[in-house]
Every structure is written in C-alpha cells, then in structure tokens.
C-alpha cells in the first residue's frame, strides 16, 4: 500500500479543565436561543452520555470564568444536579470573545436575529469591515443588512395610549417598530401606502394604517415562501 502523505497543522494545545458550576458566569451578549425541546434534549444528552462537549470560557477579571460558548450546556448541567462542568479556557479580548460567540452560534443556526444584529453592530464600531467579516458565514451585503437591523427600535406603546386618540386601554400592547431605510425603499413604501389608503376606508390613525399595510405586505410575502 502506497504511503499517504499527511499535513500536520499546528494549533495551540487545548486543555480541558473541570471546574465548579458556580465558577462560571454567562456573558451579557449571547444571541443563542433554544426551544424548550432543544433545551430538554441537551439535558437528556448530559444525563445519558455525560459532559462530552466542554464549555468555552475566558478568565473573568473578578475571578472565575465568563462563558463564551456553551451557556445552555452549563444551565442543563446545573438543572441535572451536576456540581462541575468541563471547560476549555482561552484568553480572549472582548472583541475576540464576541466574534467567537457569533461564529459558533451562527454555524449552528441557533442565533436570535435581533441579538445577533446588535452584537454585530457593536463589533462593527471597533473592527474594520475586513476584520469583522473574517470567519463569519455571510456575504458582505448580508452582513451589512444584519448590522442595519440593529437600528430597529422595538418598543411597546404605554398602557392606555392609542395612536389617533380613542378610549384609554383600547390599544394596550400595540407594538411599534422604527427603522431607517434608503430613499428608494421609502419612496416605494409611500407609494404602496397611498395605494393601500385609497382602497381602504379605515378610520384608524395614519400610523396604524401604516402598520396594517406592513402586515398585509408581510402576509403576502410569507404566502409566497415555500
């Protein structure tokens, strides 16, 4: 059998440590989200096979470690009654830790979009576009679109406030979204609104009608998505 030539890649050695669950703390920017079933599956896996996927952490300046990746595994281990977890410790700057959080969550497809957009927007303030996109699974235009999503202002009108007047409490829980859009997108939206308004004899205030239009447009778009 002919000899096979192998290429040896040099990496910094990874040392797996076992630490107390109380020595870890979550990071404040984790965009990861999980369904209840996925969370239960993580705990079932730990109970069945043990802690085979170490948590990635970095030293915390106040002592212990801050989680970079693996917060849900840490939570599951605590819920299962484990006092210790396996970790891999890396010395990482804030930017490096945030970047790894994005990479590891996005390659799994588990990141919350708004949380991800906020984190990317934060990183874009300290990294050049060339540095930011390295290692991320996006095309430049996709990355730009995600960062722009961080400018969305998601809020709820106070209890009892109704656009255009009306009885207090009549529209409690109305959600508002404010965002910046390019001029051509605004022009298209205005044209669509004027067409919609002409066909709809709605008594609602103008901003509510805008929301109704957005709902119709979103519904029409989703109806065409496989």
Report on this structure.
This protein is α/β, with parallel strands linked by helices. The strands form 2 sheets. It has a 5-stranded mixed sheet with strand order 1-5-3-4-2. It has helices at residues 36-49, 71-79, 94-106, 113-124, 129-133, 140-149, 183-199, 206-223; strands at residues 16-20, 24-25, 55-59, 65-69, 84-89, 153-156, 175-178. It has 2 domains: 16-110, Conserved hypothetical protein from pyrococcus furiosus pfu- 392566-001, ParB domain (Alpha-Beta Complex); 155-223, no CATH class. The longest helix is centred in the C-terminal third of the chain and has 18 residues, at 206-223. The chain is built from 8 helices and 7 strands, in the order E-E-H-E-E-H-E-H-H-H-H-E-E-H-H. A hairpin with a 5-residue loop joins strand 3 and strand 4 (65-69).
Q: How many runs of DSSP E, i.e. beta strands? A: 7
**What helical percentage do the residues reach?**
40-55%
The CA-CA distance between the termini, in Å, is 50 Å
- As for the CATH topology of the largest domain, it is Conserved hypothetical protein from pyrococcus furiosus pfu- 392566-001, ParB domain
Measured on Cα atoms, how large is the radius of gyration? 24 Å
Q: What's the level 1 CATH class of the largest domain?
A: Alpha Beta
Low-confidence stretches: 156-172
Report the structural category. alpha/beta
Name the average pLDDT. Answer: 75
Element order: H for helix, E for strand: EEHEEHEHHHHEEHH
The outline comes out as elongated
CATH superfamily of the largest domain: Conserved hypothetical protein from pyrococcus furiosus pfu- 392566-001, ParB domain
Biggest β-sheet strands, sense, barrel: 5 strands, mixed
CATH architecture descriptor of the largest domain: Alpha-Beta Complex
Number of domains: 2
**Quaternary arrangement of the chains shown?**
single chain
Strand order of the largest sheet: 1-5-3-4-2
- How many helices does DSSP assign? 8
Strand fraction: 5-15%
């Amino acid at each position: 059998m002919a000899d096979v030539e192998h290429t040896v890649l040099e990496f910094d050695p990874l040392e797996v440590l076992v630490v107390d669950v109380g020595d870890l703390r979550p990071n404040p920017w984790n965009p990861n989200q999980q369904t209840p079933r996925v969370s239960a599956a993580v705990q079932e896996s730990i109970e069945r096979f043990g802690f085979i996927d170490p948590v990635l952490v970095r030293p915390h300046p106040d002592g212990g470690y801050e989680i970079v990746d693996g917060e849900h595994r840490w939570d599951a281990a605590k819920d299962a009654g484990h006092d210790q977890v396996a970790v891999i410790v890396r010395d990482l700057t804030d930017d490096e830790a945030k970047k790894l959080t994005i990479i590891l969550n996005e390659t799994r497809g588990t990141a919350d979009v708004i949380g991800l957009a906020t984190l990317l927007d934060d990183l874009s303030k300290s990294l050049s576009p060339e540095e930011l996109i390295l290692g991320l699974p996006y095309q430049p235009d996709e990355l730009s679109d995600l960062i722009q999503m961080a400018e969305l202002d998601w809020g709820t009108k106070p209890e009892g406030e109704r656009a255009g007047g009306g009885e207090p409490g009549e529209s409690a829980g109305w959600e508002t979204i404010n965002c910046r859009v390019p001029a051509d997108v605004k022009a298209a939206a205005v044209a669509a609104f004027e067409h919609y308004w002409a066909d709809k004899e709605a008594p609602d205030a103008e901003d509510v009608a805008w929301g109704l239009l957005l709902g119709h447009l979103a519904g029409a778009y989703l109806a065409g998505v496989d």
